[in-house]
Specification:
mainly beta; Maltoporin, Chain A; 17-stranded antiparallel sheet
Length: 325
C-alpha cells in the first residue's frame, strides 16, 4: 500500500511481480506485471523495458506498457504507453538526464479517448570550481475527445547559476530564472495542488544567498520578482496581469554542538493590489551525525518562499529531515 494514497474505503493497494536480467555487461532487460485496485477501480498493466550502457558516460533506456483500466462505472480503458530516456555523465563536471513519454488511452464503447505527452530533463554543468550551471525542464500535455479532466497542460523550465567559491567557502549564492505554464483542466489540481486554484503563466527571477559569519552564526536572504498572467477556472481564457515582489531574511545559530536554530521572515508585495503580506518561520534542529539532522518548527502567515505558489497557504507545524553528502 502506497502511503501517499488516499485512505478511501475499499482500496486494496497495488501488487507488483517482475523479473530483471542482465543479458551482457552493457544490456539488461526487465518485465513487470502490476495489479492496482483503488476503491471501486481496477487496472492490470504489463511493462517491458531495457537499459543499454552505450559507453562509460552514456546510458540509454526504453519501456513499453500495455494494460486495461476499469473505472468506478465499469468502463474499460485500454492503455498503450512508451518512453525513451538517457543519462550522460562525465565525472562531476557534466550530468544530464532526460526522458520522453507517450501514452494513449482508448475507452471501450464511449467517449473519453486521450493522448498524453510528457518530458523530463535535468542538467548540471560545473563551469569552474566556483561556478555551476543547473537547468531543468518538466512538461506534460494531454488532449481528449471530451471536455473531461483528461485535458491539461503543464510546463516548467528553470536555469540557475550557483556560486560557491572554493577560496572563500563562507559565501553561497544562487541566481535563477523560472518559467511556469500551468493550465490544468476543469477537474485537475494546479501547481499548488488545488482543484479550484487559478491557471497561470509565470516568469520568476530570484537571487538567494547565505554568508557564514563565524562557526556559530550564518545570515542569508532572498529577493524575488514574479511576472504572471492568471485566470480563474470559471474564466479560463480571461487572463489578468499579476506581479509580486518577495523579500526574505534569515539567520541560523549553531548554539551547542548538536543543536541549530533557524529563523526566517518574509514580506510579499502585490504590485497590482498594493497589498503587503508577511510571514515568518522558526525551527530547531538536532544533528544526528555529520550528514543528517532532524528538526521541528512552525510557520506563520500566508507567504510562501516559492513565488509560483499563488493560491497556496504557508502556515503550520512541520518536521524536517536534512541530509548532506
Amino acid at each position: 500500500m502506497d502511503p501517499t494514497r488516499s485512505a478511501a474505503s475499499g482500496d486494496r493497494g497495488t501488487a507488483v511481480m517482475g523479473v530483471r536480467e542482465k543479458m551482457t555487461d552493457k544490456l539488461s532487460i526487465f518485465a513487470e506485471t502490476q495489479l492496482d485496485q483503488p476503491a471501486g477501480k481496477r487496472s492490470l498493466t504489463r511493462n517491458v523495458g531495457a537499459t543499454y550502457q552505450a559507453t562509460d558516460e552514456l546510458a540509454l533506456s526504453a519501456t513499453y506498457e500495455l494494460g486495461t483500466l476499469r473505472d468506478a462505472n465499469g468502463r474499460n480503458t485500454d492503455r498503450v504507453a512508451t518512453s525513451f530516456g538517457g543519462q550522460y555523465q562525465v565525472g562531476d563536471k557534466v550530468t544530464f538526464s532526460g526522458r520522453v513519454e507517450y501514452r494513449a488511452d482508448a475507452v471501450t464503447g464511449g467517449q473519453g479517448d486521450s493522448t498524453t505527452w510528457g518530458v523530463s530533463s535535468s542538467l548540471s554543468y560545473k563551469i569552474s570550481p566556483d561556478w555551476r550551471l543547473i537547468a531543468s525542464v518538466d512538461g506534460i500535455t494531454s488532449s481528449s475527445d471530451t471536455d473531461s479532466l483528461k485535458k491539461g497542460e503543464y510546463l516548467r523550465g528553470s536555469i540557475g547559476y550557483a556560486y560557491r567559491p572554493v577560496a572563500h567557502d563562507k559565501l553561497n549564492l544562487f541566481v535563477s530564472y523560472d518559467y511556469l505554464r500551468d493550465l490544468p483542466g476543469p477537474n485537475q489540481v494546479n501547481h499548488s495542488g488545488s482543484l479550484a486554484g487559478p491557471r497561470q503563466i509565470s516568469q520568476v527571477f530570484s537571487i538567494d544567498g547565505d554568508y557564514r559569519v563565524n562557526n556559530t552564526l550564518s545570515l542569508g536572504g532572498k529577493l524575488g520578482y514574479r511576472a504572471s498572467e492568471i485566470a480563474q477556472r470559471s474564466a479560463a481564457d480571461d487572463f489578468s496581469k499579476s506581479t509580486a515582489t518577495l523579500a526574505v531574511v534569515r539567520a541560523g545559530w549553531h548554539f551547542v554542538k548538536e543543536w541549530d536554530v533557524s529563523i526566517e521572515g518574509r514580506v510579499l508585495y502585490q504590485n497590482e493590489t498594493k497589498q503587503r503580506e508577511t510571514g515568518a518561520l522558526a525551527g530547531i534542529y538536532r544533528r544526528i551525525n555529520d550528514h543528517v539532522k532532524v528538526g521541528i518548527g512552525h510557520e506563520w502567515g500566508s507567504v510562501s518562499g516559492d513565488l509560483t505558489q499563488i493560491d497556496g497557504t504557508s502556515r503550520g507545524t512541520f518536521i524536517n529531515f536534512v541530509g548532506t553528502f
